[in-house]
Each structure stands twice: as structure tokens, then as C-alpha cells.
Write a structure and sequence with these properties.
- It is a single chain.
- It contains 14 helices and 21 strands.
- The chain has 448 residues and is of the alpha+beta class.
- A 6-stranded mixed β-sheet has the order 6-5-4-1-7-8, sandwiched between helices. Strands 9-12-13 form a 3-stranded antiparallel β-sheet.
Amino acid sequence: MLASFFRFARVIPMLDDSVFQRRISSIQKKLGKGETLILFAANYKQRNRDVDYKFRQNSDFYYLTGTNEADAILLLQRNDSAIFVLPKNREEEIWTGYRIGPKLAKKKLALRAAYSLEEWDMQKEHYLTGQQTLYYFFGEDIQRDTKILTTCKDLSRQVRNGKTAPLRLEIPHFLHELRLRKSSVEIEELRESAKITALGHMALLQETKPGMYEYELEAILDREYLKAGAWGGGYGHIVAAGSNATVLHYTENQKKIRKGELLLVDSGAEKDYYTADVTRVFPSAEKFTNAQKDIYQIVLQAQKQAIKTVRVGNTFQSVHDAAVSVIVDGLRDLKLLKGSREKNIAKQEYRRYYMHKTGHWLGMDVHDVGLYYKDGKSRKLEQGMLTTVEPGLYFAADDKKVAKELRGIGIRIEDDILVGKKKPINLTVMIPKEVKEIEAIREKALEK
């Protein structure tokens, strides 16, 4: 059913040049007189001798330019703009692939100027002279930071020649605020990544058998994602059997799966620079044990309650608070917490078993950009924001304070929730998470 749904999904409108031109223009309008934004593209990173990692463009750079050019630089001022790219070179392109070149880059993005990357060192002083504020993402590349600061220092020494350097260096949060609110086209891109993610998770439910290894499940996810046109996962797949699920960022994926264990799978497909992020838990056998089911239902109820809170006007923190309230009640019912709900929440006693937040922004990056607090307060949700909702409970295998049947259980349930105009919109709702649904699929899968 899912495969059929995916095959006949409507075609997503492509992000054409005009989209990126409008984004650049919107950023320029946020820049005042004497303010400059410099944005660097990603570069190739070495995996090991003579081998690079697969190139993936910096999300901010792609968001504004739509280009996959490595090492490029975008410079924006209120009334000026320039891009620096590698020069056209047929011999180099034979080895490393097509280059857009300055002429086409300028035309595609409707910029005032375009240069060969070789001209950056000469031109950057020209563009920074007389500027008051430089917006730049410091801390991503120490060598690059040093060169930028050196240029500013050199300019400051030429004050007697009429040159001045930027007096303020700031992180351009306004760019990330723009990315935080998704356009209709971006939402369709995210829906597509969600549908592909569903294919991967469904394949695991239908194909997993005791005796397989975690890495075999990882391979199934990659198979489904790549077949459907995704680039793979938007982050390292977490395929955690048994007590491995109590390690939040477990990525070894080497363990043999035993009958009776739970499997926690945290994985989302990335396509066209937009990623999903989904976690599901299912038994390696046909059914959950009673202990597994009890914990699962607590987490599921916490997630459902938190999802209801993802509404315009509610705060980001309120989503977490809604989940915590249910989690605490569940732990009290299990006699793992004593005292009132209010006391346990105030003292954060629950953090022994639920130690992370309930969600994060999602988009081009799995932990997407945008502030969570404004003026010291949790920000209010707005239409077009996208957050994960992912409560969990984790009982370490060696935790003698919990009943033996609970030790080694780790459960997290995660969906991708869009803040809609009137109500939350679950982009990953098609991936089963009710106990009856999961057990019915597992029973059928293990009949084969």
C-alpha cells in the first residue's frame, strides 16, 4: 500500500532560480547600510588517504543559492551582491565534475558581480572597507575565521589612508529565522522525504527476523531510501537491539538480534536537502511482552499528548511539558517515582529515565536551525515551523532500581509535526506505531 501511495504521489514543484533570487533579496532587505553577510559553501573533506567523503553542500549556502559548488563564497550587502566560484576548467571538470563558473552563477542568481575564487583574497578587502557590521558564521572553520579576522585587522591599521574595518562581528541569526519557517514548496519536499522514510520503516517491520544483525536492518533502510530517489539517511541510522536502545546516539549497528528483544530504529530519509526524522520501536518476535508493552504505552501516550500541543501560540517548551507530565504519571504508576507529579517535575526526578528534550526543529538539517528561546523565554510556535516530537523511556541493563523485566528496555517514538494553521499536521502519520498495528504486521512477517 505504501509503495503504491509513493509511486503515484503528485510531482513536487522544483525550486527554480527565482526561488533563490527571492531568498537572496529578502536577506538583502534585512541588511542595513554598512552591513555585510559572508557565507561559505562546504568543501570536500578527506575520509582517508586520497578518498573524500561524499560532498554535501552547506545548508545555509544551498538555501540561498541552490548550487552544489564546493568552496564557493556568497557576499551580500543591501545594495550589492557577489559570488566567488571555482573557474571553468575543462581538464579539472573531467576529473571532478561540472563547474558552474562565474558567468552562469551571476545570471542564475541575478547578482551584481561574480568572480573566480582566485580573486577572493583581492576583493574581500574592497567589499569590507567602510562596513560597520560583518555577519558571518564563526566557529565552522578556524583557519577561515583567522583569515577573516586578519583582513579586518589589516583594514583597521589603514585608518590614516581613509579605510575602516567592520566594528562588529555577528552571527546572522536572521538567516536561520528565515529557514525556520517553511514555505509551501519546502513542506512538499519534507512530505516526500517522509514518504520515503515510511518505505524504509515498513520494510523493517516486514523483513526483520531474530538472528539477523543490526547492520542488515541498516542496509534495508539504505536500500529503500536509495530506490526511492533519496540520498540515503539524513543522519547516521540508529538500529538498536535490546539494551543498545538505552544508548541515545547508538550507531555501531553490529549486534545480533535475539528473539524477544525490542528494536529501536531512528532513521529518516534525506532527499533534495530535506530530511525526515522518525523513530519506531517493534519486537523482534510477534508480540511485545507485557513489560515492554507497558513502557511502550506510556511513551506513546506521552507522544500523543505532546503532539496535541504543537499549535500556533503555544510555546516550544509546552510540548516538552505535556510529554513530561504523562511520563511522570507512568513512572509513578510503576512505583519508580514517589510523591506527587508536581514534586517530581520540579525536582526533575524523571530525568533518570527520560533525559532528553521532547523535540527539535527539523528541515534541511536534522537538528535544524532557529532559536528556541527569545528574550529568555521559550518561543511561541508559528505556522510553518516543523518540530519532531519524540519522548522516550530508557532503563539501563544494570539498573538495579528497576524491576528485572524492565532492565535493558529503551523506547522512543518520534514523528515530524508541522505547525498548521488550525491544528498539528503529522507528516509521518503513515508509519505504524499502535501496538495492535505493529503486532499484526510482525505476526504476518514471521509466518513466512
